[in-house]
Structures are given as C-alpha cells and as structure tokens.
Amino acid sequence: MRAVMFDWTYPSCSAALVTYRSSLILCMATTGAMSISSNAWVWSAMRFISGTASGLVYVLVSSIVLDELARQNRSSLSGVLYGGVGIGIGITGLLVPTANHSFGWQGTWLELMCLTVLLGIPSILWMKDRAGGLTQRQSTVRTKGNRDRFFYCLTVAYGFGGIGYIITGTFLVELVTNIPTLHG
Predict the structure, then answer these.
(1) Which of 11, 44, 105, 109 is most buried, judged by most C-beta within 10 A?
(2) Does the keyword Transmembrane helix feature in the UniProt annotation (predicted)?
C-alpha cells in the first residue's frame, strides 16, 4: 500500500527518502494546525503527530546526510548538520516572542509554519536519493523486500529513540523546575 501511495509522489525513491519527505510535510502541516484550536485533546494529538514526524525527520536526515558525507570523505562537516539544530532553536527563540506580541498565539503558529515551509521545501527538493543508502555490493546481497523490512525495523527503533529525545528535550525544563533540590 505504501509503495503504491508513494510511487506516484516520489518515483524511484528509497523508503528512507520517502519517509523523510513525508514526515517533513507532516511537520509543516501540524505546525500550522496548532493555530486551529485551543482544545487540549486537539493540541495533544497535533503535538504527538508533529513530535513523531519531527523525530523521524531528525533521525532520517542525520542518517542520509552523514552517509553522504562519509561517501564523499567529508565526515568532518558533520558538525554543520547538528549546528543547524542550534541555529533553529536560536531563530525560534528570537522569532516567537516578537510574533506572539504582534500576532498572538495563533499567528505565531502560522508564522512558524511559514518558516518551516520556507526552509523545508528546498530541503525536500534538494535531498537526492543514493540507491537507498546501500552500496552496489550490498544491494546485490539484499533483496528489495528484505531491505524494506530492515529499513522499517530500523526506522521503528530509531523513531522510538528520536521520540524519547524530543519528549525529553521538550519537557526537561519543566521537570527540572519541579525538583526543589535543583533550585538555586
């Protein structure tokens, strides 16, 4: 089913690239959807979907980019990839208070969605497939079905790790402020 659904959208792309692109589009949509409602259940659902998609994007883009850097013998540039996370945190840290003051909370979510689309669309278009990340020798050993099964198992494993990372990062400040022994 997934193959039929995505073959039209992403012809001849690996499962990793299809999942990356689809997850990034889902992040864009759910970021904008945060402005629709103030209902706690709707928000919880949107944050869960967005967090899961965001975790997948983080894990998959790391894998895809680091593999490509290694293929080009440029692994020393891996810090640039992770520096982008810090730059993103800095930009949103500056943008959110200004946007909230000017547009309110709903406008802030819409502005963040626009920023996500502005930065995400080039990433979707520029990210190229490299035969599913497998070398020529490996691709002759594994059949497509085994490779897809392996990818899905790996995605689930890394996805749980990514979700754990995102959830911990999201709520760490709240957890620390509720521990009296850590107060200064």
Answers:
(1) 109
(2) yes
How many structural domains comprise the chain? Answer: 1
**pTM score:** 0.65
CA terminus-to-terminus distance, the chain: 55
Q: Residue 81 is part of which domain span?
A: 2-6+13-182
Paired tokens of 62: 């790391």
Residue at token pair 């009296």: 180
- d(Cα 30, Cα 47) in Å, to the nearest integer? 8
What digits encode the pLDDT tens for the residues 86-124?
Answer: 788 888 888 888 888 899 989 999 998 999 899 889 888
**Site of tokens 């990514």:** 162
Q: What is the DSSP annotation of 39-72?
A: -HHHHHHHHHHHHHHHHHHHHHHHHHHHHHHHHT
Cβ atoms of residues 19 and 155 within 8 Å: yes
